[in-house]
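so the lab meeting is tmrw and i was supposed to have these ready like two days ago... anyway. pasting both below. for each one the top line is the aa sequence and the line under it is the structure tokens. i havent really looked at them closely yet so no promises
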Amino acid sequence: MSMIQTGKVDLSSTNPVETVGGRTTTFTRVTFPTPFPAGSEVVVLPLTQTFNGPQTPGIRIHDVNPQGFLIRLNEVLVNNAVKSDGTHTTETIGWLATTV
């Protein structure tokens, strides 16, 4: 039987773009309202709910487990495909987590 939870988090980025896999010091921990059962395989689907900054914010997810996940904005490209400095204003990110 599948289990689904939803939520939202307000995120901003004052840090450079994170380009090293596994480096999560600039991520925010989201804890599920109710932990999924131990051993569950959980999938998180994030989606930007607002349009507060002129550039498109990338969303990075890491360390998804039955208790929660890590998330951050990772604005990568701006006009003319120039690498961004990584900063981005606050956006609301909605998420849906489910077992598979």
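ok protien two:
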Amino acid sequence: MAGKRIGDHQVGIYKKLRTKLGQEVAAAKTGISVRSARRIDASEALPSQREARKWRTRSDPFEAVWDSELVPMLAAAPGLTATTLLEEVQRRYPGLYDDALLRTLQRRVRTWSASYGKEREVFFAQTHPPGRLGLSDFTHATVLQVTIAGATLLHLLYQFALAYSGWRYVEVVLGGESFMALSSGLQNAAWMMGGVPEEHRTDSLAAAFKNKAEHELLTRRYDALCQHYGMRPSRNNLGVSHENGSIESRQGTLKRTMEQALLLRGHRDFADLDAYRLFVAEVFGRLNGRVARKFNEERAMLMALPTRRSSDYEEVDARVTKYCTMTVKKVLCTAPSRLVGHRLKVRVFAERLECWLGNVCVLELRRGQPDPVSGRGKVVDYRHLLPALKRKPGALARSVLRDALFPRTEYRLMWVQLKDCLPEAQACRLMVGLLDLAGNGGCEAALAQRLAALLAAGEMPDLEELQQEMAPRPAQCPTVTVVLPTLASYDCLLEAA
């Protein structure tokens, strides 16, 4: 085949086939040309046994100028390209050197550079032990063309990443690369990952200062921040971005992932800034899901955090399963289906749970307590499962969460009556309709009272009638009649005074 040398093994296969087949067929089966087959038949030596060729099959077109003119030019300026050299010899010797000789000259220049060229910069691959290095950087996000309520959002994205596991934290920054933006993002990242690395590296932060005095002030504040968390501060050399490569490369993957998520979303407009921040949190949450195993390994090697920002809660991790449930402190809780698959950081307060995805609180729940006997508990909000139940009402009949779904005893008793008196499918549809009316109609308590009356009378509920009955009444404004007093009455008051 053109461009590939025929080896000893290929020659052996050809000769073995040649004993049974003709020259053309044997050559085709071996993958060589008929011309090569004729040379093999004419020679007894294997390719490795032949003498290396030391002669040229074509004359050297640059023989007259290579040593005398081209090599001195390359020695004086190794950065010259073959195109420049060819244009120069064409200027010196018009009509002697055609443009088609460019590829030949490029090979000659490459060979000379490999033998006599200048030393090139060497990059040393680095090992990053877990928990040693964390990096911060800012990137412009204008290319994403995000709008808030139709207005273009000019913003940066701050990103923190762990060099070993690749775990990252991303925050929307309005403004420039200020120290406050760095401080806020770094601390939020530290509290989110539950520890700090030994060393924190940034670039020169050129956008955060304008003169020497401000530069010195920034350096002191940055050093103080790192000392507070027990990290060793470092910076890459000015203009040498590859020293910060563990974060620079992730800036590209972040924006590419966000671009794909925006394309999948269908549009780039958000109702408000909080909605966009939630979108960003979902994107880097998915990226962190890819490195969950390595992050769990590295998290154990991180240094402890200083005094907590707030000591009135405890943080635990919980993943929302495909059943829209998660377990927090041995208590099963429900969550909206939009959070399925996300790993949430749950802040456990005395009476409530705050579920955070990145720096956005996506859900607040009432905290439940484990049962003293079983050691387990449930906190089920039927509103979280209503959208899915409306699509699949038949799933209610044998759902393991069925009894916990009913917000009050009246609903559970009504389900028992519906199940006994109606076909299963009809009973499920009616019960889901009642739950939908209670949740979306804002009349859970009133509807419970109405169901209690129906249970006492042994009657079946009429969903349409209940919907009309529980519909919000239009507000009635009282008619106010204003009667103005006569001016003569003021004269009487003055006389009495």
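from a quick look at the 2nd one: Residues 69-116 form one domain. Residues 207-211 have pLDDT under 50 and may be disordered. will dig more after coffe
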